[in-house]
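User: structure tokens for this one?
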Amino acid sequence: MTASPLDAFAVVLVEPQGPANVGSVARAMKNMGFGDLRLVNPGEWYGPEARKMAMKGRDVLEAARIFENLAEAVADCGYVVATTRRGGPYRADGQPPRELARHWLTVAAANRVALVFGPEDRGLSNQELGLTQAVCTIPAEPAFSSMNLAQAVLIMCYECYLVSGEGEPPTASPPRASQAELAAMYDHMRDELASIGFLQGSHQDHIMFVLRQMFGRTGLTNREVRIIRGIFQQMRWYIEEGSKREPSPAHPPTEA
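Assistant:
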């Protein structure tokens, strides 16, 4: 069987509420050709009700993987999309899935892409948003914009399904660094920026969020991540050793 471009996608549910919701999501994913379901700290999620709601998507349900936190769930992904309906400074740039789906498929040609959905009662936290590279908001009637989890998953997957069936596949973007590699880079960056006084007080998290979003938009490769970490490693060496040394005298120009 020919591999589908949708095989590169993972649907990640953060603290989903109840087995019926998880089962309904599995069915929605099966409708649109998605198979990789990941659950973050789901509590009670599996049982007769979940199987009943999953219908012919039971294989998706049975193959679901469990993670303790979002960082672990997306560690192997090169691109992570957050879904949100809430307002706020970290969510203002949310775009409709129809405007973003083609880009997701382009990235998915060489990377695993995660579509992340937060708890139905409160959505993703700002800390969880900091692990993502894009924010997506599904347009809906303002007077009643809330939709259940399976509806949101179905719409997101549907937009990707439409693009995947257009015939000519999108031009692949290069392989990106995994979220695990990026997380290590950001931890390294935070430590070194704090050591030189750039990160101070209550603004640390905000600045790191902005840096994550900024680098996230560029789609860093693992080589670029190594270069950035090399810069911060050299900064650490200079702080500890280089500043103690006398600068080398300038060499006179060599005569031709």
